[in-house]
From TrEMBL:
The keyword Ribosomal protein does not apply. Residues 27-142 form the Response regulatory domain. It catalyses: 2 GTP = 3',3'-c-di-GMP + 2 diphosphate. Its EC number is 2.7.7.65. The keyword Phosphoprotein applies. Keywords: Phosphoprotein. Residues 192-324 form the GGDEF domain. GO terms for molecular function: diguanylate cyclase activity. GO terms for biological process: cell adhesion involved in single-species biofilm formation; negative regulation of bacterial-type flagellum-dependent cell motility; phosphorelay signal transduction system. It comes from Paremcibacter congregatus. It is an enzyme of class 2 (transferase). This is diguanylate cyclase. GO terms for cellular component: plasma membrane.
Length: 324
């Protein structure tokens, strides 16, 4: 019989994220007010984790920075505090929502166990506590938590990568389009003007030809940095294509947009760019086309076309200028 591989089955094989999940530096919080039990659990787990004991003496958890723990073990027979309420609180608090909770229940207390599981605790151990079981369940929970963290981080990274441009760190064209569509389709925003700047570096081919493509990339990076520094938090800068950039300015009239565009143009032209491919800083200029929503520019694509036409005018008129 043939060995079926993932590909045969139509399964896309990605990196195995669960491999090499290490238990090193695992941190466990143990909420147990019975000192001798706490000490014993601590010693059972000492090979796999650093255990912090919180004995809730004052009727509440006093351990700081709960978010750093990989696992929280809670006794459900605490004298000063209701263990189930504590579980419920930890499940709903932002800092601890993702941390697995292992509860210590009294043998045969099914009612308590059921309530704990309903509150979302992850696992349980019935007393009397078996050392091997405690270690095995703790390990499993810590691994699972670290695996989930890794997935979340990867997901976050993928989302960021899908939105941004690698060379400049600005938003990419794809993100810009949906942002602009969104902004222009909102009913109440139709009365508010959106100004859009379309920018294109002048004679950029010459920069590449003279200093090399890597130096060209440095210029693009520095250009993006200067624009980002010069716009408001509500504005959005994106790389539209090769050496073309867009700035979207919500609730901005033509006069103010002109003022910003002119300031951006000068921030490029007035300070030559330092790049590793050249001993002397090089002169860079940018042409800017400006358009505003309303009148004929009723959709994001129409607004982009209008800005592009204005940019063309700026190029025709001799570059290094703003046109609308
Ligand atoms: P114009 O003033 O008319 O805009 O002249 P230009 O030379 O800038 O225009 P053209 O469209 O002829 O050339 C654009 C250049 O931008 C050509 C291309 O090699 C360069 N370019 C596009 N994307 C990148 C990039 O990611 N990195 C680098 N280094 N260069 C790029
Ligand atoms: Mg061109
Ligand atoms: Mg150009
Ligand atoms: Mg161009």
């Amino acid at each position: 019989m043939r060995e079926a591989t993932g590909q045969d089955l139509g399964i896309k094989i990605g990196p195995d994220l669960s491999r090499n999940i290490s238990l090193s530096n695992a941190k466990v919080l143990l909420v147990e007010d019975y000192i001798r039990v706490a000490g014993r659990i601590q010693s059972y787990l000492e090979d796999i984790a650093t255990v912090t004991v919180d004995n809730v003496e004052s009727g509440e958890i006093t351990t700081p920075s709960l978010e750093k723990f990989d696992l929280i073990i809670i006794s459900l027979s605490l004298s000063e505090i209701d263990g189930l309420r504590l579980c419920s609180h930890l499940r709903s608090a932002e800092a601890t929502r993702q941390i697995p909770i292992l509860v210590l229940v009294d043998e045969g207390d099914t009612q308590q166990l059921v309530r704990a599981m309903e509150l979302g605790v992850t696992d349980y151990i019935a007393r009397p506590i078996d050392r091997n079981e405690l270690v095995a369940r703790s390990k499993a929970q810590i691994r699972q938590k670290r695996y989930a963290n890794r997935l979340r981080r990867n997901m976050q990274k993928s989302i960021e990568m899908a939105m941004t441009d690698a060379v400049t760190g600005l938003y990419n064209r794809h993100f810009l389009s949906s942002h602009l569509d969104n902004m222009m389709s909102k009913e109440n925003d139709k009365r508010k003007k959106v100004s859009l700047l379309m920018m294109d570096l002048d004679k950029f081919k010459i920069v590449n030809d003279t200093y090399g493509h890597a130096s060209g990339d440095e210029v693009l990076h520095e250009f993006a940095r200067r624009i980002s520094n010069d716009i408001r938090n509500i504005d959005l800068a994106a790389r539209f294509g090769g050496e073309e950039f867009v700035v979207v300015m919500p609730e901005t009239n033509l006069e103010y947009a002109h003022f910003v565009a002119e300031r951006l143009r000068r921030s490029i032209a007035d300070e030559p760019f330092e790049i590793s491919g050249s001993e002397t800083p090089i002169d860079i200029t940018v042409s800017i086309g400006l358009a505003i929503s309303g009148d004929n520019n009723t959709s994001s694509s129409k607004l982009l076309v209008a800005a592009d036409q204005a940019l063309y005018k700026a190029k025709e008129n001799g570059r290094n200028q703003v046109c609308s």
